[in-house]
Structure formats: C-alpha cells, structure tokens
Amino acid sequence: MTEDHRIIDGRYRLGGRLGRGGMADVHFALDTRLCRPVAVKLLRRTLAGDPAVRELFEREAWSVASLSHPAIVAIYDTGEDVDPATGMSLPYLVMEFVPGSTLQTVLASEQKLSPRRARR
C-alpha cells in the first residue's frame, strides 16, 4: 500500500492506496470534517489532461451516485483538487469506505467462490 498523506480539497486526508483501476487510484482517507473513513478515487495524473477521460470519470460519478443498493458503495462527494506535484487539476470521487478484501484478492486466494460466498 503506497502512502500519500496530502489533504484533498482541504478536507480529505489521504492514506494508503487501496487499489488501482484503469483510470484512477483509490485511497483510504479520513474525512476530517465528519471524522469518518472514506475511499477517495483520484483520476491518474497521466490521464487528467485528456478531456475524454475526464468526461468518462465524471459520467461514472453521476451514474454511481444515481444508484442505491446495499451492494453498491455510496458516493458522498465529488470535486477537483490541484495536484501539488504538477499543478494540474485532478477530479476525485469520495465514496463510502467498506473494510475487507478486494474481489481480486479473494479470487486469488480462493480461486472459485461458492454461490453463497459470491452473494455475500
């Protein structure tokens, strides 16, 4: 887990990286205003200059925020923050933090999930 202790938008103190997707990195963070753990998804620096990628990232935020289901994390906030290393504006999503293992980790250790385990 990589560490990045900067504060995003004056509110979200980043901790270690939880995961990495095609467009973004997800970090554990603390919402310093509400004193609760959250997950912050930050668009990668290398992609932040591409308008098409930024639009896709924003559409993802809107799409997920419009859903409500126990198996889907809640979106708490969105915004943009200036990357101190590059001065570039980076979009972010703040999501509910759900403790536990990633599906990738579970599949690597169990190879196959029973239907009951998959539902859980």
Overall pLDDT confidence: 88
Q: How does CATH name the architecture?
A: 2-Layer Sandwich
Uncertain spans: none
Shape: globular
Instruction: Describe the largest sheet.
Output: 6 strands, antiparallel
Strand order of the largest sheet: 1-2-3-4-6-5
Structural class category: alpha+beta
Element-by-element helix/strand order: EEEEHEEHH
Give the distance, in angstroms, between the N- and C-terminal Cα atoms.
Answer: 25 Å
Instruction: Name the CATH superfamily assignment.
Output: Phosphorylase Kinase, domain 1
- Any idea what the radius of gyration is? 15 Å
Helix content: 10-25%
Task: Give the CATH level 1 class.
Answer: Alpha Beta
Instruction: Give me the number of helical elements.
Output: 3
Overall number of structural domains: 1
Tell me the number of strands.
6
* Share of residues in strands: 35-45%
Summarize the structure.
The protein has one domain: Phosphorylase Kinase, domain 1 (2-Layer Sandwich). 23% of the residues lie in helices and 36% in strands.
What does this molecule look like?
This protein is α+β, with helices and mostly antiparallel strands and 120 residues long. It has one domain: Phosphorylase Kinase, domain 1 (2-Layer Sandwich), CATH 3.30.200. It is built from three helices and six strands, in the order ββββαββαα. The chain has a six-stranded antiparallel beta sheet with strand order 1-2-3-4-6-5, with helices on one face. The longest helix is centred in the middle third of the chain and has 15 residues. The mean pLDDT is 88.
